[in-house]
């Protein structure tokens, strides 16, 4: 496991963040630290993503800041230039994977079937996002995929919430569980940092319990 993977494994959770205003990144990063989850996957779903990554990485350096929804090479470049320490994609895009490896930045592409896993293994990757987790068969599907692919560490995201977190928490081949439920968009926009810190703490507690 790389240092980055070890950090994700130790925390066990990856908040998937969409921010509208990069000015919120410092407050959000601080709330994540207070909530016991010093990790963020800031998604390229808004124009604020790159500046948000840059701000969080600089202002709250204890947070491991990565980029999500990186669907092409240009976004990967923007993310890495902004200081993203890992890159996550919803699918497996060889151009994104090649670029990240050239830049020595860990990349976690998304897959949800055996063919996708084989393509990723061919590219030398064993840590993969399982997306969209719930719609693709959820915890049962990960258990089924882990049988022929014991070398793969999965990061499931998509449709995970406090209701089904426990189903995923028990699976040994899972590196960390991702989701937006810990950082609701409305809470970010209204700068409800105590609420976000509380959601993170609850998630940590249910994962450990
Ligand atoms: C992702 O990009 O990982 C997902 O959109 C997060 O899914 P969620 O909003 O259902 O947690």
From TrEMBL:
<comment type="subunit">
    <text>Homotrimer.</text>
</comment>
<keyword id="KW-0119">Carbohydrate metabolism</keyword>
<keyword id="KW-0456">Lyase</keyword>
<keyword id="KW-0704">Schiff base</keyword>
<comment type="pathway">
    <text>Carbohydrate acid metabolism; 2-dehydro-3-deoxy-D-gluconate degradation; D-glyceraldehyde 3-phosphate and pyruvate from 2-dehydro-3-deoxy-D-gluconate: step 2/2.</text>
</comment>
<dbReference type="GO" id="GO:0008675">
    <property type="term" value="F:2-dehydro-3-deoxy-phosphogluconate aldolase activity"/>
</dbReference>
<protein>
    <recommendedName>
        <fullName>2-dehydro-3-deoxy-phosphogluconate aldolase</fullName>
        <ecNumber>4.1.2.14</ecNumber>
    </recommendedName>
</protein>
<comment type="similarity">
    <text>Belongs to the KHG/KDPG aldolase family.</text>
</comment>
């Amino acid at each position: 496991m790389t240092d980055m993977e070890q950090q994700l494994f130790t925390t066990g959770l990856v908040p998937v963040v969409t921010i509208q205003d990069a000015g919120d990144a410092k407050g959000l990063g601080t709330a994540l630290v207070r909530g016991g989850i010093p990790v963020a996957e800031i998604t390229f779903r808004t124009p604020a993503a790159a500046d948000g990554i840059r701000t969080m990485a600089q202002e709250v350096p204890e947070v491991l800041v990565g980029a999500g929804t990186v669907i092409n090479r240009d976004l990967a470049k923007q993310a890495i230039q902004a200081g993203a320490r890992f890159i996550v994609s919803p699918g497996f895009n060889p151009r994104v994977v090649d670029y990240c490896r050239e830049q020595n930045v860990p990349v976690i592409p998304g897959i949800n079937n055996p063919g996708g896993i084989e393509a990723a293994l061919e590219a030398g990757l064993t840590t993969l996002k399982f997306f969209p987790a719930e719609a693709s068969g959820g915890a049962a599907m990960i258990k089924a995929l882990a049988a022929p692919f014991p070398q793969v560490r999965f990061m499931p995201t998509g449709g995970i919430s406090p209701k089904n977190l426990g189903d995923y928490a028990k699976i040994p081949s899972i590196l960390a569980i991702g989701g937006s439920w810990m950082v609701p968009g409305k809470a970010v926009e209204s700068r409800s940092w105590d609420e976000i810190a509380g959601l993170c703490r609850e998630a940590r507690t249910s994962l450990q319990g």
